[in-house]
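Batch job 17 of 40 flagged for manual review because the log was empty.
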Amino acid sequence: MWLQVLGSAAGGGFPQWNCACTMCAAAGDPDVPARTQDCLAVSPQGTDWYLVNASPDIRAQVTAAPQLAPGPGPRDTPLRGVLLTDAELDHTLGLVLLREARSLEVHVTRATYATLRHGTGLVAMLERYCRVDWRPVVPGEEVRLAPGLSYRAFDVPTTKRPRFAGGAGPGQVVGYRLTDTHSGRTAVYLPGMQRLTAAVRRELDDCACLLVDGTCWDDDELVRLGLADRTAREMGHLPIAGPHGSLVELAALPVERKVYIHVNNTNPILLDDAPERRMLAERGLEVAVDGLEVTV
């Protein structure tokens, strides 16, 4: 199974277009690469690819990835479908940019579909341009996605209040266990996690690669910098640092490769030489960059 990180930043990307914070000002230096908004591509054999989330940067992300190049026909594409973790605009606006497709296969939970239909209106908008095959995602159910590749979604509890109608309840946020059915090896994609509950922890058991929420270093990061009035947890994300942060819990997990993704533009782990980055490396965790390739 092949994984390609198309985007590794949180909403707004890095640098964020309207942000003059210290981190965004440093973006573009050799040691501080820019990042687009999070999106993953997965393939069982390197030819047929599925996206997990469709970011607003999807056009640039796809054109930057040689394995996603169109062909052999004039309108052929190796993209076969999209799996959504939630209904956040950062994860769904890219669907509109994929409207030129002859058809789209989109895997969504009931809660996410309700938001896209009754809240953001993306369902009606997209269906005016192309045929869409909406596939129901049921947490806990193993789904054959393609020969050699299956997924199982799992519910990620959150108290974050949805901005739009229709999206509250189970399935509002999910993670995905992606399995190479030939080898049995798995990867977990979990870009949004408010709490590492016992149930969520069980979903991480025996996975070979974990791509996990690394939005903020500190819970009060955005508030302290005067950039927001909510903490990381209030925005639906478990901070990395602190006695109850994700680093303490993830460092102890027996997972071969642990990679932070969905990193906010304020997070110091974006700096290669930051002490926070060294802390991660000492405990066996990495920070994703756009273009990262992982074979599972």
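Reviewer: the log was empty due to a logging misconfiguration, but the result itself is present. The mean pLDDT is 96. Unflagging and moving on to job 18.
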